Amino acid sequence: PIVETRHWPDEQATHDFATRLRDAIAADADLGNAFIALHGDLGAGKTTFVRHLLQALGVRGRIKSPTYAVVEPHTAQSGLAIHHFDFYRFNDPREWEDAGFRDIFAAPGLKLAEWPEKAAGHIPIEDLAIKIEAMSDDTRTVILQANSARGARLIKGAPA
Ligand code: ADP
Ligand code: MG
Fold first, then answer.
1. pTM over 0.95
2. Hey, which family's this protein in (predicted)?
3. Which CATH number is 45's domain given?
4. Contact 57, 80 (CB under 8 A)
């Protein structure tokens, strides 16, 4: 896989990366079908990244965090369907089928997932893994890993 390390000094850097990803998706419609997984401890900045990406994609209104619902659906300004998962409280394997998660991952649209580790065994391989680590000076070290051609195009489309 393609692996790249980035440094995000502040939240503006999170915003800039989200904006570049938005531009890459706008230029290559298939990237809108990507599955992007966010790895990192509590407080790393996973939800913050998702919010910046949703805003860049023109999602309107209050952006709810899916912690209790596991998934929040959104629609981009372009009409692109986006599902934001947070598997932190995922613990019932039956929910994968019953709540239609399999169908969401099989359908077109952008899939964003926090805590994918908690759904291991169900969740497909991510096109792009974003691993965020908060450093002692509050900056972020970010590892991007592409596991597919789509993931590689996302990284290429969002250069540092
Ligand atoms: P997570 O979803 O990984 O638990 P959050 O996105 O809720 O983490 O972020 C936790 C805190 O980190 C928030 O207060 C947010 O403002 C801060 N934060 C997020 N990204 C950055 C960044 N790139 N630089 C500095 N602080 C950040
Ligand atoms: Mg979060």
1. yes
2. Belongs to the TsaE family.
3. 3.40.50.300
4. yes
Counting atoms of ligand 1 from 1, which one is nearest the CA of 41?
3
Asked whether 46 lines ligand 1 (CB < 6 A), one says: yes
If one counts the domains in the chain, the total is: 1
Domain of residue 8: give its range: 2-157
Q: Is the CB of 95 under 6 A from ligand 1?
A: no
H helix or E strand, kind and range, residue 49: helix 46-56
- Ligand 2 centroid vs 130 CA: distance in angstroms? 13
Contacts of 151 (CB under 8 A, 6+ apart): 1, 2, 34, 126, 127, 128, 129, 145
- pLDDT tens, position by position, 55-78: 999 998 778 777 677 999 999 999
ipTM: 0.99
Rounded Cα distance, 95 and 43, in Å: 26
